[in-house]
Amino acid sequence: MDKIASVVGHPFQVFVRSTSTNNNNNDNENNNENFVDIPPPMEGWTIPQVIQYSIQLLQEYDISEPEASVQQLLVHALALDWHTGVRQLSQWTQEQVVLTPSQDGHFRELLSRRLHHEPIQYLLGQWDFLDYIVKIRPPLLCPRPETEELVMKVVLEDDVVRTGSWYSNNLDEINNNMNNNRVCSDLRILDVGCGTGVIGIALADQLSRRHFARLSASSSSPSSSSSTTTTTTTTNTVSTRTRVVVEAIDVDPIAIEVSRENANRLLTDKQHDESIRYNASLVSAQDFVPNEKFHIVVSNPPYIPRGEVLEPQVCLWESERALFAGEDGLDVIKIILERLPDWCHPNATCWMEVDPSHPPLIQKELLRQNNDVDNNNNNNKHRRVRFVESYQDMFGKDRFVKLLVNHEPTT
Amino acid sequence: MLVFVSSKLLVSHFRVVSGFSVTKLQPIHLRPTSVCTSSLIRNTQFPFQSLHCHHRFNIHTGTRGTFRSNDYVGRTTTTATTTRCFATTDKDKNNQQHLEEGFLTDLKQQFQVAVDLYESNLKGIPTNLNNIVNDLETEVADPSFWDADNKVRNAYVTSQLSKYRRLQQRRNDWTSWKEDGDAALEMLQAANADDTLFSPEERLSLARELEECSHKLIQEGDRYQLELLLSGPYDDQPCRILLTAGAGGTEANDWVADLKRMYERHAQKMGYALQIEDEQPGDVVGYKSVELLVSPGVGGGGSHPYGWFRGEKGTHRLVRLSPFNANNKRQTTFAGVDVAPLLDDNDLNDIEIPEKDLEITAMRSGGAGGQNVNKVNSAVRIKHLPSGLNVKCTQERSQAMNKDLAMKRLKAQLLAIAKEQRVAEIKEIRGDQVEASWGTQIRNYILHPYKLIKDQRTGWETSNVQNFLDGDLEECIAELLKTQAKEQQELQRETEQ
């Protein structure tokens, strides 16, 4: 007990990542520490007894969210249904359901790992993101609710999607191939730093579900299709062949593996009928050179400024590379800003989740970058990135930025 | 097993000879089609409680009548089965003659009532029904109909088609019953004029047929009319019933458990599918709150869940000797029932609530947020500021899903209130209206010192408390629907004037 408390569980202990070398040392220390403390056997205890005792134990060790932890871990240990398990658990409060030896073993193992601040998402191996069940493995970043908001913002508000401008981008190509049956108009999305892959996967699925249903509905209504029959046929041809292509990149091999797994599981049908294609590759934003350009770039890059104080279950377990990005947290974002013109079609949009301190800094950075272009590059066609807007998350923090990749420089 | 007679026509003439004794039945006055409530059974002194089946009766003089048998075991009343008995022996010639005449007039009257109902019902059905069904069928038969991009239209047409097909089936049934009845009546009248035309057995079977036709027409017609009352915009949607314990601790929690059981049994009886969405157990017994989801039953039973249950919204007051009270004193407790339709995304998307009217709080709020924290508590609470309505959602692991769900529920509740308070737009809903729709005491359940359940809105009451709590809500709800429809009509008339 003392051992755990001394390492991770002290109530007032703070976890600071001042330098990266320091961090690695911390990690090593933690990994080398061999915890022997495991909770006492609870075999034969009733569920309320188990819950009560475990909550107390977690509270003693100052673990975040003791009640939710115990509920989720018990659901897992008792192999209850993913969706209804917690409710089932609460219904047993008045009944005499007791822990069997194997359940007890499983639960105690989970509980002892939780005592070491391991995130619940890692313990269960999966978590919900929107209505997708996503596999999660350490040390990938566990998806946060803000990221759900980011995805829904793109689905509902993105200009490229709303106006269908990606389609007009491809129009030349489509017109050239009008008589060719193999015409298709892909909406190409890039997910930078995909982690578990949730952003790209959710986005692809939502867009193919919502948007294309609407697109085909509008193409069949007479008002929207222009009077000539040729256009009508074109629209029809295209709408049935529309495909969402997601390119996901990350620097962590585990991320590539897990995001592919998730995509295969969550998008099985749509990948099969070719309405979605998902591809993950191990490459950094700096080195990534796409075969084809993109219409939308989304990213939840690492954005925490160095030196910020994080709770133990974040900084001890989640990948540092997914969290921290230099002194001001802008390191990766700057790379993305620089690379955007090379990656994108004209009028492409870029959505990012950022630190609330970032939106003004990003504006400044873009200004600098565009000046450089003006000074050093006479090529008028070089695309610029324009800051459009920042949005608040549901907690009122400036969490999201929307950027636009312009075709021509604006004044 | 209890046996009682439910035919008004012949009750006073009945004499029944059983294997054991000969007894005269008490005259009970019932409407021809009404189902005898069990209180009536209990209150009536019946001599045949030990009899096992009705065919042991040997009917003496009355020639015919209707028997119904109820299984009455403990608290459970199973559905009544109808058995008809026709006496063919011991005919008193004069008496029979006399009976047959009165009998025919009564039958004719009854049939006339049925036909009137049939005709008034028929008026409400579109005359070009067959064409409508044909058009829809043609559309469905088109191969491109099932294309993926046609989903919205698809769902709409399929639901319309099943609705109109049901109506068609209904109309055909009615018409065939009416025609059968007409024919039987005609032959009976002819037989009355000319005794030699039919044998007594044949006449009996004709009379039987005529009565059966009237009976079916009236029963189905009543049912149809009740369903017509359930024609509100969301009445055919599934609904969510939320039971919340009022003040009163353990006793109130127990009351919620009783109500939960009552609705479960009632839903089962009416053929609805009921699902428990959420339960917050009480500290000692019962529940602090229960959330039920009622949807149409699988076998076509139980249509219009929201329409049927929406009248249950309000406060339910219980008065009884509390078993949880140290002195076993009389205690009054309350439980709140909230009923809201479960709406399609399509219906809900039409509703716009300005963001400034909403206060959305997440359990996780506060602190840095974003990548800095990793919390699993995803509960979301949404408050609608103008009305003060509060919705909390905790059941999903995803915060966005909880928010979505909470928003849907809030919208559904607002819609329901808007409709109830006859407000045209949601933005016109004010806090006091919400209060009013919640706080109204709609029904009293008094178990002590006397037994009475009384609906405050209609005045409908029953002393058979146990059966009501066992889910016999049908009469009470039907009464409410009729009263509400009447009020609506009067209101309309007033506005027209």
> Which CATH architecture of the largest domain in chain A is right?
3-Layer(aba) Sandwich
- Radius of gyration from the alpha-carbon trace of chain B, in angstroms: 28 Å
* Count of domains of chain B: 3
Instruction: Say how many strands of chain B there are.
Output: 19
What Rg of chain A do the Cα atoms give? 25 Å
Q: Roughly what is the average pLDDT of chain A, rounded to an integer? A: 80
Mean pLDDT of chain B: 73
What CATH architecture label of the largest domain in chain B applies?
2-Layer Sandwich
CATH topology of the largest domain in chain A: Rossmann fold
Distance between the termini of chain B: 56 Å
CATH class of the largest domain in chain A: Alpha Beta
Number of strands of chain A: 11
The ordered string of helix (H) and strand (E) elements of chain A is HEHHHHHHEEHHHHEHHEHHEEEHHHEHEE
Helix tally of chain B equals 12
Task: Give the CATH level 1 class of the largest domain in chain B.
Answer: Alpha Beta
User: Sheet bearing the most strands of chain A, described?
Assistant: 7 strands, mixed
Quaternary structure annotation: heterodimer
InterPro entries (chain B): PCRF, Pep_chain_release_fac_I, PrfB
Keywords (chain B): Protein biosynthesis, Signal
Domain Prokaryotic-type class I peptide chain release factors (chain B): 364-380
Signal peptide (chain B): 1-19
